[in-house]
Structures are given as structure tokens and as C-alpha cells.
Amino acid sequence: MAELPDSIEATQALLAGQNYICGRALATVVFLSLKLGRPLFLEGEAGVGKTEIAKALAAGLGRRLIRLQCYEGLDAASAVYEWNFPAQMVAIRTAEVTEGTDRESLTEELFSDRFLIRRPLLEAMSPQPGGPPVLLIDELDRTDEPFEAFLLEALSDFQVTIPEIGTIRAEKPPIVVLTSNRTREVHDALKRRCLYHWVDYPDFEREMAIIRARVPEAAETLSREVVAFVQRLRREDLFKRPGVAETIDWAKCLVALDAVQLSPEVIADTLGAVLKYQDDIARLQGSEVKRLLDEARATLEPA
Fold first, then answer.
1. What angle do CA 282, 287, 289 make, to 5 degrees?
2. C-alpha–C-alpha distance, residues 150 and 278, integer Å
3. Per residue in 65-102, is it b (16+ CB within 10 Å) or e — as a string?
4. How many C-alpha atoms does 125 have within 13 Å on its Cβ side?
5. Separation of alpha carbons 155 and 177, rounded Å
6. Domain ranges in the chain?
7. How many CA atoms lie within 13 A of 59 on its CB side?
8. pLDDT above 70: residue 101
9. Architecture label for domain 8-81+116-198
10. If pLDDT is split at 50, 70 and 90, which confidence band does 303 have?
11. What global pTM score does this model have?
């Protein structure tokens, strides 16, 4: 288990060691979150690297990553715990044919840790061998307001209550990272408990650094053209603009095809790696791809 970084620069280095390249503003809010023990709330478009921050922190600090993937209809019970009902039924049937088992002892056994299934929130508040884990609450905007209200309490005191057992409080609070794609607004009360940062698309130089770190086998010329084309593509009126994740995936696909530079034909054949909606792909047909490629290359030419 590594020590927490003691400066913004050390935080950048920690993340860079896991091939996560970020600017000073993001490194600052991550450092403050770690130093102050405050949850970190990250908003931004899908694919800009919000989830990867939690993964990089866990790997860099040698902590366990516990992920709560949010979805519509997620409730507190699903996020905290449930009882192993089939195992409880087996224990009941066994007790029925065993002499000397009284009802009180059976009830205590049925609702003991032996039959408790720990879901992400409870698991994150339980002691871990490598120290407090990194708890990733991913895509919070997919849930509803009642679950937000529950999180507000859970993250304020870092404790949860199980009616049959009682209140369980984290001896050492986990490192908490919450993400949102902003498909809806998250309540201000929850945001106030967190340090906030909007994760934007990177500029050309930072995206180049990301590609060099994540796809080192890609030729420099190809990487520059890929990044320039994606950056130009983000200025188009698309249903879903490509994120950094798509840039990385596209570069890997082109390397797998032994491409050394972009061409309209190669782009048309691999658009499914960078665009995820048919309407967007349909917009980039024929001369449109060549126009965008020419404009992207023009930005690479020396002034």
C-alpha cells in the first residue's frame, strides 16, 4: 500500500504512473480530495476519463477498487447488502431435522455475518487488507432522487444500518469517487458534500500524450493524424461526440490494421470504433470524410 501523495505534482506523477495523463486543475482537486478525505464528484461527457481516475488511484495506491455501477431503479438494499436466502432456507431445513436447536439461536445464526452478502457500499466500509479501498460510484445520474438522499447520509457519516444487525461504521473512510455524465442534474445537497470538477475533452497536446501512453506502438504520424481528426470531429454537429476512450480504441484498431497514416478509405472502414450512432456515421460518407481529414491535416502543418 503506497502513501497518499503529498503534493499536486506527486498526484500528477501517481496518475501518470498508471498512464493517466491529467492537467494541474484535475490533479489539484484529486490531491485535495485525498488530503481532506472528501468525496470527489466528477462530471463530464462520456468517455473523457472520469471512471479511469478511480482505477488509476486504486492501482497507484495499491488499494482495492470497489465499483457501484448505478442504474435506473437502484435502491439502497441492492447497493448495501442482501441476505443469502437459499443458504438460509437450507439452514432452516437442517435445523428442522436436528434436535436441540432452539428458535432464538436459529434466528441469531440466520441473520449473522455468515449469511450476509455484502454489496459495494457495505464492502467499502468494511476493513480491507490493503487499507481503505477506492469506492467508485459510477454514473450516479442514472439513479433517482431517493437513492441520492440515501447516499447523502451514507457519505456524510460513512455508515450504513442493517436492521437485523445494527449500524456499521467505517473504521477508516474509503476514498470515494462519484461520476456523472450529466444526463440529469444531481441534487446540490450531495454535491456540497464533495469536491467538484468538470472533466472536459483534452486539448491536442494532452490527447497526444494520452495516446503515446496508452498506444505506444502507434507511429507518431498516425497518432498525430488520429488526434487531429478526432479533435476536428468533435466540432461537428454529432449526436455523440467521441471521447478520449474512442480515440484510444480507434488508434488500437488502426495499429491492428497496420495503418501508418489515415486515408478516407481507412477512416470509412473503421468509423465504428470512433462513432457509436448510425446517424453520426451516415453523416460522414464520401467527400465529407476527405474534407474533415484535409482540415485535420491542415492543423498539423507548420505555420
1. 60
2. 38
3. bbbbebeeebebeebbbeeeeeebeebeeebeeeeeee
4. 20
5. 11
6. 8-81+116-198, 83-113, 204-293
7. 14
8. no
9. 3-Layer(aba) Sandwich (3.40)
10. very low
11. 0.88
